[in-house]
Amino acid sequence: MMTRELYETHILTKDLDKAIEFYKHLGMPLATYIENRRVAFFWFGDKNEKKQTLGVWEVSAEKFAQRHFAFKVDYAEIKKSIHWLTNKGIQAKESFGLAPTEPIVHTWMPAASVYFEDPDGNSLEFIHVLDVEPNNEKPIMYLSEWENIKR
Known about the structure:
This protein has three helices and nine strands, in the order βαββββαββββα. It is an alpha+beta fold. Strand 7 (111-117) and strand 8 (123-129) form a beta hairpin.
């Protein structure tokens, strides 16, 4: 058996109602809400495809732990992602010492990324894997710098 896709991932929240509003605001369709278990499930992408889900579980502050996951986006989306987040009232975060003025590139993959957080401080990322060979010798850089090197 091969692992080909991630179907489901889970994160924790201290306030499920606030988390539900945040993920709906990101455009994720609510798949189900189970009040007595204090959990909500969301679809990634088109809810009719039912390809991937996110489970958000409410826990006490003592049991809470922050997590990280990334949303796969296309090249045009990663280029406008900071503006898109800003329009939604969400602040992109500094990452790897670089201010959130544009996407950064992890040259070892390579992939362009933008980081932000949900209301609980879970680390979220928009990511677009670039279709070129990785370069382990180059540092993390802004996408515009990477584009200039690739020309």
